[in-house]
Amino acid sequence: MPDRAPQPVDRQLPTDEARDLISLVRDIAQREIAPKAAEEEDAGRFPRDVFTLLSESGLLGLPYDSEYGGGEQPYEVYLQVLEELAAVRLTVGLGVSVHTLASYALATYGSKQQQVEHLPAMLGGGLLGAYCLSEPASGSDAASLRTKAVRDGDDWVITGTKAWITHGGIADFYTVMARTGEDGPRGISAFLVPADAAGLSAAAPEKKMGMKGSPTAQVHFDGVRVGDERRIGEEGQGFAIALSALDSGRLGIAACAIGVAQAALDEAVTYATERRQFGKPIADFQGLRFMLADMATQIEAGRALYLAAARLRDAGRPFAKQAAMAKLHCTDAAMKVTTDAVQVLGGYGYTADFPAERYMREAKVLQIVEGTNQIQRMVIARHLAGPEGR
User: Fold this and answer.
1) Hey, which end of the chain has fewer CB within 10 Å, N or C?
2) Spatial separation of the C-alpha atoms in residues 257 and 228, rounded to whole Å
3) How far is CA 352 from the centre of its chain?
4) Residue 370 annotated to the active site
5) Whole-Å CA distances, 228 to 112, 158, 201, 204
6) What's the whole-number average pLDDT of the chain?
7) What pTM value is reported for the model?
8) Which residue in the list 41, 267, 362, 370 is annotated as catalytic?
9) For residues 313 and 302, what is the distance between their CA atoms, to the nearest angstrom?
C-alpha cells in the first residue's frame, strides 16, 4: 500500500546548508550503504570503503572547525546525520560516532600546533580513529585503569591492555587514556597514538551478538613509545578529557539508537500494511495499531530529547545530565521498539530474511556502550540529589 509506506523523517533543520547535508547523507546511505548492509553484516565485513567515501564527502568531521577540515556543523545537525546513517547500518552510524569521539580530545584540548599537524588528516584525510578508555578490569570504574605511561626523556612509554575497543585493529590512530601519576582520576593523561607505533597490536575481534561488521577488540600496548608532543592536554587531565568526550559521545549513541528504532518501525509499518489476515491488512487490527503508535511515540520522544541536549551543547550550556537522559531513554526505547518490530512480523521477524532481528540484536549493545544505562541513571541521580554517600 504505497500511500501508507514509511516516509523519510521530517526533520527540523536550522539552515538550508543542513537540509542539503541531510539530502547528501540520504543519497549516500541508499546508494552506497543500504544495498550491501545485510550481506556484509552477516559476513562480518567492515565497510572501510564507505568510511573513505564519508571522509571524502566531509562527513567524518562534521562538528569540528572548518579550519582543520571539519564541517563546523552544530551538534543538532551532526546527530541527525548519525541517525540517518545508523538507520541504514549501525556499523556505519556508530563508527562515525566513535571516530568523532576519538577526535574530540585533540580537537578540544590539543595545542594549536597539534591541531594543525594532525586534525586535517583525522577529519578529512581518510583516517579512522578509536577511543581507548576501557580495560579488562575497568569498565564502568574507568578511573581505576591500569595502563601506564612512564616518562623517558622526551618520550612516554605506554604499557597495558585496552578492551572493547571499536575499530580495534583497523583504526589509524588511537586516543589513549593511560596512568602517568597517582591512583584515581587525577593520575590519568591522554595520548594520541598512531596505529603503526612499534609495540601496538590488537587481539582477534570479539564474537558478538550483533554489529558483526564492526570489529571490537582488545588493543595491547607493549612498551609503545610516543613523544611528549603527542600528549593531549596537561598531565593528569586525561580523565576529565575522557568524561567530557563521553558527554558528547553519549549523544551520538542516542542518535544512533533512534536511527535503529526508526528503521525497525518503518519495517514494521511496511509489513503490517502489506500482510493480510482474516481478509484485511493486519495494520487494521487495533492491538497492532496501538503497538505501532507506541513505537512511534517512543521514537519521537527520544529524538526530541537528544536534540534538546544537543541544542544546550551548541549554546555552550551544561548538558551532561541531558546527555545521560538522552542516552538512557533512546537506547531503552530502541530495545523496546526493535523487540516489538520482531513481534509485529511474527515468525518472519525471527528469521534473517527480514532485518527486524538484526535491528533487535544491534539495539542491545547500545544500552551498554559508552556507559551502561545503569551508569546513566547514577549520573542523572547525582545531578538531582548530589554525590552518593555525602
Assistant:
1) C
2) 38
3) 24
4) yes
5) 15, 12, 21, 30
6) 96
7) 0.96
8) 370
9) 17
